Amino acid sequence: MRVLSVASEAYPLIKTGGLADVVGALPAALAHHGVAMTTFLPGYPALAAVTGNAKVVHRYDDLLGVEARILEARIGEHPLLVLDAPSLFTRGGGPYGDATGADWVDNWLRFAAFSRAAADLASGVVEGQDFDILHAHDWQAAMAPAYLRYAPGPGTPAKTIVTIHNIAFQGRYGAEIFADLALPDAAFALDGVEYYGGVGFLKAGLEAADAITTVSPTYAAEIRRGEFGMGLEGLINVRADRLTGIVNGIDPAVWNPATDATLPSSYTARTLTRRRANKRAVETLYGLDRDDGPIFTVISRLTWQKGMDVLVAEIDELVALGGRLALLGSGDAALERAFLAAAERHPDRIGVRIGYDEPVSHLLQAGADAILIPSRFEPCGLTQLYGLAYGCIPVVARTGGLADTVIDANEAAIAAGVATGIQHDGITPEALSHALRRTFALYARPDRWAMLQRNAMRADFSWDESGRRYATLYSNLLERA
User: Fold this and answer.
1) Which CATH superfamily, name and number, covers 272-460?
2) Residue 240: how many other CB atoms lie within 10 Å
3) How confident is the model at residue 161 (pLDDT cuts 50, 70, 90)?
4) Measuring CA to CA, which of 189, 393, 430, 458 is 20 to 30 A from 83?
5) Full-prediction pTM beyond 0.85?
6) Class of the CATH domain delimited by 2-249+464-479
C-alpha cells in the first residue's frame, strides 16, 4: 500500500507539539506492515536543509492565486514531498503565527493551498506518484479530502482518512473565503465545507473522509458527547461507524533512557539508581535545592485545556508538602506570569523555563520523579508515554488517552503488581491536591515507588501495535472500495 501522510509538521524537521512526533514516527512504524508512506509538508524555512537540492516534480502557476512547486526529498530513510510556496510559508516566526505568537491572518489560504496540492498528489497530478490512501492530520490538512471529493486531479482519487489529534482546533473561517478556495458552489453545503454559515476545515474533512480516526479509544468515545465534541459531536455521531480510536506510540529510537545520548546518565529498569545523576542535573539546571524529596515536572503548553490554571493555584501546597517543580513550557501569558511569580516566591523549590527545548525535555523525563498532566481533555498525550518509558511517574487526569495508558496505583493494582501511575477524577483543586498527596505517600515508600517505575518502564507503547492497527485500517478501507 502507498499512503500519502499530509500534515503541517513532522519531527525532526518542524515541531511545535506531539503531532510532529506522531507524523515523524509513522513511516517507520508502518514500513513493518507493508505500507510505503510518503510524508507531505509545507515548505517552511526549517526544511531548507533537506530541500536545497530537491527535485521539482510539479509546478503551479496558480495554486489558489500563488506560484508554487512540489519538491521531492527525504525525511530520514523515508520519502518526503514538500510544497514550496514562498509567499505562503517562507516567513519568520512559527509555522502558524508570527514571532509574537499571533496567528497569520492568511492561515486559511496557506493550508487550503497545502490541502489542494495534497489532493492533487493523491489523484495523480505527478506521474509515478500514485497513492492508495491520503491520510490527513488535523485541520491544517483536513481540506484535502474535501478537494478530492469536489475537485479531484486527473487520476483516480485515493481513499481518505482524517485523524483528529485535537478536536478543539478546527480551522473555522468566514464565508467570504469560500470564493477563493477554487471549489464548486455545491461544496458550500451542510454536508460539505459549510459550518455555521462559514467554512470549517476540520468539519469539511470529517464530512468527506472515508474513515476517521482519533488518537485513543477513550477520546473517540468522549468526542461523541457535547462536553468534548466542541460542536462537532453531531457529525461525529452520524459518522460513528467510520470512527476508530488508535493510541499513539512513541519512537524508541528517540525516547529510550538506555540509549538516550542527551542524558548525563543512561539507565534501564534494572539500573534505576543511575537516574540520580539526571536528578542532580535537573536540580543544577533549574537552580533547585538538592534534597531527597520528589521533583515534579511539567512539560506542556500552559493553557486552560492542560489544567495549568488549577496546577498553579495548588503550587504552594506542592512546595509545602516538600516537593519541587521544574517546568518547561509556554502558552497563555497570564499563566506564564503566574508560574514565574511562583518561582519568585519559591526560588529554590520551583524552576520555570518558558519555551521548548528538546534535550531539556529528555532530561526532565529522566531526572524528575513524576510528571504532572492535569488536563481537562487529552486526546492521547505523549508526555505521559515518555514519562512511562523513563520511569517518571505520570500523575494524570482520568480522561482521553491518559485514561487509556496509565494504570492507577490503587490498592488492587499495587497488589497485582501492575500500577504505573496516579490518576484523578476531575480538574479541581481538591482532586489535584488529593493526587499530590497520594503521590507523596507512594514516594515515601521506596519499594512501592521503584515498583511503579519498573512497571512503567516495562509498558510497551512503541509503534508496533499502533502501526499494525493503522495498516489494518488501511487494508479494510481499500477492501471496501
Assistant:
1) Glycogen Phosphorylase B; (3.40.50.2000)
2) 13
3) very high
4) 189
5) yes
6) alpha beta
